[in-house]
Design a protein that fits this description.
The structure is a single chain. By secondary structure, this protein is an alpha+beta fold. The chain contains 15 helices and 30 strands. It starts with a helix and ends in a 12-residue tail after the last helix. The model has no long low-confidence stretch (mean pLDDT 93).
Length: 601
């Protein structure tokens, strides 16, 4: 494993997975465009050694491929994470007494490093800046996308402590730089940091906060993991368990909080819960759309500490695939054994990148009785952040859950729309722009398992596709795959998409189709982009319809932009796109960056 960020970067360089860019580059959009090209082409991580007007270099793409993420977490492949947790959970302590203790002994090596270690001296405190010396504008904080409200810290490890219980939390929340000594803190409705702030307000106290940048990449990953609330267990413990060595923690210089001794940079300060909230955003988010301006607390920075020669770590999020997809895959592998403790019939599950974590989950199960697919789906919706899932697709255990599209097609061959689909409501991710209300909306369950007699039995159906498709003046582009029909249209009036669906499904070319996906005109009709766009843009309760086709019912999903006349009164965001001038600049400088042998667009 890696003691700190620079040890990881050195290891990547030895593996040929790190490139240094030695010419000056801008933290405003230019780094994003370069990094986006490389992550989408499976390229190396990057170290920008000279950032215009800033004091520190930028490392980006640290988790930019599945293989690199596994390397960062100390495993050959991400499936090993599940195996490691499964060995820990397979406790056989006996009936009690001495036999119980002896039964636990074989598990002790697995816990090596579980408990953090306190240290007095910390490399991250080699340089200490306080008061007027604090200047966040010297950090190479990226402005990632053209419509962003400003520069955002995108890979911060935010440390807080419950004011009542003393429990620590390490989370990752974007932070917009507001001025030299403050940022906004994006603590959403369901986040632990927000609960800590609410408790501080109840007690009439300010909330101390520390923000670490860099350190062992395992710690960075741990900050993203949806750790269940376990007394006395924090993300520091998870990181130590994964790396097999304790995380070293030092005391902050102006806050009574532990900070990672091997981090590159630490921001220390506080949030005053009595202070007015500040405007934060827009921000080009992991959904691939901009989240609009909203109100969040202000984080006041009282000190910046850093290593000499510190490196600033960053990531970018946006239209998938992005490197957050590999962090999400690490999480799904890590928590598979825990899901099986609650739902033992689960063979596997997957959150396809097109679903940007919460929009789409495939689950394979060992089916033994009628209704079991729904039981599993309900159970998953009750597990932590899985409550945000918008569409859950169930398949039989022998069906591979990835790639996502092929698993969906297999499900469609066994799912009769209407009979084997179910709509319900529940919590939705606050970043979801299409739900019926803020953080609340519809969900869709598709039972693609083989049906038992009590469930109506199998409905024989052969998925087919047609090369020649019917012409309609409102269809700008269309394509079929076996069982799936994708259509792009320019939406100009209310309910246009559903009316178009009814017309199309009367044609003979709807034979063999079980799912019709309707998207806006600027959507490329590849399975990945089509599903990404539709899943982002639906509230299933509002936008899913079962409509007759020539060979039976078809599930229609209206993934077009929603209009006020359709009862939608929230802000509909812009899709993330890079400024063409920046794209042209990067294209022109590609050889200058020293990246000429890599894919440049």
């Amino acid at each position: 494993m890696f003691k700190n960020l620079r040890a990881y970067l050195e290891a990547l360089e030895r593996r040929g997975e790190l490139r240094r860019v030695r010419v000056p580059v801008s933290a405003e959009l230019e780094i994003t465009e370069i990094a986006d090209r490389l992550v989408k082409s499976g390229g190396p991580a990057l170290l920008f050694e000279r950032v215009v007007g800033k004091d520190f270099p930028v490392a980006i793409g640290l988790f930019g491929t599945r293989e690199r993420t596994a390397f960062a977490l100390g495993v050959e492949n991400l499936d090993e994470l599940a195996q490691k947790v499964a060995r820990l959970l397979a406790l056989s302590p006996g009936r009690g007494g001495l036999s119980a203790l002896m039964g636990l002994l074989p598990k002790l090596p697995l816990l090596r490093g579980f408990f953090p270690r306190r240290v007095r001296r910390a490399p991250v405190q080699e340089v200490v800046l306080k008061g007027e010396a604090v200047d966040l504008t010297r950090l190479p904080v990226l402005k990632c996308w053209p419509l962003d409200g400003g520069p955002f810290l995108t890979l911060p490890l935010v440390i807080t402590q419950d004011p009542e219980t003393g429990e620590l939390n390490l989370g990752m929340y974007r932070m917009q730089v507001l001025d030299r000594r403050s940022t906004a803190m994006h603590w959403q409705l369901h986040k632990v940091g927000r609960r800590h702030l609410e408790k501080a307000k109840k007690l009439g106290k300010k909330l101390p906060v520390a923000v670490a940048l860099g350190g062992d990449p395992v710690l960075t990953y741990a900050a993203t993991a949806p750790l269940p609330p376990l007394p006395g267990v924090s993300e520091f413990h998870l990181a130590g368990f994964l790396r097999g060595a304790p995380i070293e923690l030092a005391r902050g210089v102006t806050v009574d909080l532990p900070v990672p001794a091997e981090a590159e940079i630490v921001l220390e300060g506080y949030i005053d819960p009595e202070e007015p909230l500040v405007e934060e955003g827009p921000f080009g988010d992991h959904t691939g759309f901009y989240t609009p301006v909203d109100l969040y607390p202000r984080f006041h920075v009282t000190a910046i500490t850093h290593r000499r020669g510190a490196i600033y770590p960053a990531t970018i999020v946006g239209v998938p695939p992005m490197e957050d997809a590999y962090l999400i895959e690490a999480t799904e592998r890590l928590f598979l054994p825990a899901i099986r403790l609650v739902l033992p019939e689960v063979a596997d599950y997957h959150m396809p990148p097109e679903g940007v974590a919460h929009n789409w989950v495939n689950v394979a199960l060992r089916k033994e009785y009628p209704g079991q697919a729904y039981k599993v789906a309900y159970g998953m919706l009750g597990l932590g952040q899985m409550m945000f899932a918008k569409v859950i697709v169930a398949v039989d255990e022998e069906v591979p859950v990835k790639p996502g599209f092929s698993a969906l097609q297999k499900a469609l061959s066994h799912a009769l729309p209407g009979r084997d689909t179910l709509l319900l409501r529940g919590p939705i991710d606050v970043l979801d722009h299409s739900s019926r209300a803020f953080a609340y909306g519809g969900k869709l369950l598709i039972d693609g398992t083989r049906k038992l007699p009590e469930e109506g039995g199998e409905a024989p159906f052969t998925l087919r596709a047609h090369s020649a498709l019917p012409q309609d003046p409102e269809v700008l582009d269309q394509r079929q795959w076996p069982g799936v029909w994708g259509v792009a249209l320019k939406k100009e009036r209310p309910f246009q998409a559903l009316a178009l669906a009814e017309r199309l499904l009367r044609h003979p070319e709807s034979a063999g189709i079980r799912l019709l996906l309707l998207a806006d005109h600027d959507t490329a009709l590849t399975p990945e982009e089509l599903l990404w766009a539709v899943l982002n843009n639906i509230d299933p309760e509002r936008d899913a319809r079962v409509t007759p086709g020539v060979e039976g019912p078809v599930l229609v999903l209206d993934g077009t932009r929603k209009l006020p006349e359709e009862g939608f009164n929230r802000v509909w965001p812009e899709r993330i796109r890079m400024d063409p001038k920046v794209r042209a600049l990067v294209e022109a400088r590609w050889e200058e960056y020293g990246l000429g042998d890599l894919k440049g667009g």
